[in-house]
Amino acid sequence: MSRKSERLVNLTIALLATGRWITKSEIYENIEGYSGEPDAKERMFERDKEELRNLGIDIEVGTFDPLFEDEVGYRIRPENYRIQISELTPQQLALISSATQSWRGAILDSKASAGLAKLKALGIESDVDGIPINPHQVTNSDTNLVKVIDALASHKTISFDYRAADNNDENRALDPYGVGTKNGFWYVAGNDLERKAVRLFRLDRVVSEVKEQGRGSSYEIPENFSMHEQLQARTRKHVAQLLVRKGKAHQLRKHAQIDAFQDEWDQLQYHYSDVKELVREILWHRDDVKVIEPTEVRESLLAALSSIQGRHE
Amino acid sequence: MNRKANPVEKAARLLDLVPFIYTHQGISVSDLAAEFSIETEELLADLNSLWMCGETRFDLIELEFESGFVYIRNADALNVVRSLSVQEVTAILFGLDLLKESIFEERADLLLDIEIIKGIIGTSLQRLVTSEPMISGVVITAIDEALRNRQKLQITYHSVADDVTSERLVHPIERRVENGIELLIAFCERADAVRSFRLDRIQKSELVQVASSQTNRDQSGALESVTIKIHGDVRRVLETLGTLTQGGGDTYSIDIYNQSWLIREVLASGGAIEVVKPAALRAEIERQAGLVAAQYR
């Protein structure tokens, strides 16, 4: 049986039930579990306060008398402790219930169910029959995702080893701003402390454990930051003219308008962001795609082809 | 996820149990454990701990659960639902985003409700977390229904290696995740064999109103071992090719089912991947690169 969890609960009750500030000596006297030398009690109390704050419980510190600041008191204001949600309809609760099910067996499973249990504790009935949906299952079991979310919650800097494009691992330090998933990959975005710019990292390329550095609240997230925007593909601001064989290159057609038709070819206006990426995509489609312009792309493509031929002679 | 909670996580759960039991007086021990996603023994340990808590050591929380049904009294101070933690809100927001993809157009009321919920629970976090699943939830709903009712499914499948989309009638066998990729294993009438289909490449799936005669046949297809060298873009090559075995020197070997797929990847790499063996495949790559180059002469 864990005495510590009971001590934390009793401390919460004491700080919550009191209508006034209570002092450390009152706490040591009334709450079971604070024992040993004064220093030991002190350390225990400091750690407990920190743990409760990490749970999102806001402990206020105040003084009884402005003239005698050495006598410090503590309390938890019920209005800060209490959930600020009261009006959820049965259908909305059922949707949340479905949403939490998508984490079943995955890494945020217990957080999701704890959140749902709180909402159910409000006494709202859930109308599960009204929503015939199979939630899409999350399959992520990466413990680093939880570490990133914890750091984001407490605004703590993190560091980790990251697999760079040359496949070597490099250490990165980051103030996390947001997390998200797209196309099956999970990402964290934030201020890269060395590069001094907002960068995006794929969590499956993080090759070490994510570590928190320093104390919380060490940075602010810019007001205009949006994870959704971070995950949008780079803007495709250049246009290439491509000939694409009919019935082929389904992937390319997503970002193109068909301009004209000739025999077995469609002429496409293709929007792209980066020459190297475009060459990659075109080559993938073998002789089903032909570049008309720009010349830069043609040249880069021919250079790639002669490199391939050179290596396979 | 049956890891035992640490003392802090346990304390959090004890705090959350109190208001939950208050609104669900008389709930059975097993139902209560299920609501908190824990085993019954762990819940009983929680209730025993909670019993030792109270405003003072002479004024403890009164709990009754020996009958198998849980009642609580004298815990007014803790009968307050705690605010949601960032982690909890994050988990719910991700789940809601995923859910959105599973909702059919005719239930616009549900989509509206999701936006309302996001506004209620996650105002400050909404811009920090986002989820865009790769697989259409509508596709999945049809597949799951076919699996449940043993129905046939008509799918539109994009076969990437050959770059063609095809209509196929399949008899779903199971859904499975391999190396993080979600698959539908099904008997395909056209191939007359069991095939695996990547869910992210199923563009459409519709139920066919005839019961499926499930057949279990082994997946077939010959594996071929290819030796390659990597000359650049190493991370990308390793991620694209998947499982490679390090060979002698700077070579790797890879087992493939489909030459056409590897040829495409080699061309797309623009020289970063070199096929060393077999010689015939090497020659084929040179020939195809020549074909593409010939278009520009």
Q: Brief overview, please?
A:
Chain A has helices spanning 3-17, 24-30, 38-54, 78-81, 90-101, 109-120, 143-154, 227-231, 250-253, 275-284, 295-311, and strands spanning 22-23, 60-63, 72-75, 157-163, 169-182, 185-192, 197-202, 211-213, 238-245, 256-262, 265-272, 289-293. Chain A has 313 residues and is an alpha+beta fold. In chain B, a hairpin with a 4-residue loop joins β9 and β10.
Question: Any overview of this molecule?
Answer:
The complex is a heterodimer of chains A (313) and B (297). In chain A, 37% of the residues lie in helices and 24% in strands. Chain A contains 11 helices and 12 strands. Chain A has a 5-stranded antiparallel β-sheet. Chain A has a 4-stranded antiparallel β-sheet with strand order 10-11-9-12. Chain A is elongated and about 90 Å long. The model of chain A has no long low-confidence stretch (mean pLDDT 87). By secondary structure, chain B is of the alpha+beta class. Chain B is built from 9 helices and 15 strands. Chain B has a 5-stranded antiparallel β-sheet with strand order 10-9-8-7-11, covered by helices on one side. In chain B, strands 13-14-12-15 form a 4-stranded antiparallel β-sheet, covered by helices on one side. In chain B, strands 1-5-4 form a 3-stranded antiparallel β-sheet. In chain B, a hairpin with a 4-residue loop joins strand 7 and strand 8. Chain B is elongated, with a radius of gyration of 28 Å. At the A-B interface, helix 1, helix 4, helix 5, helix 6 and helix 7 of A face helix 1, helix 3, strand 2, helix 4 and helix 5 of B. Strand 5 (169-182) of chain A pairs parallel with strand 6 (129-132) of chain B, so a sheet runs across the interface.
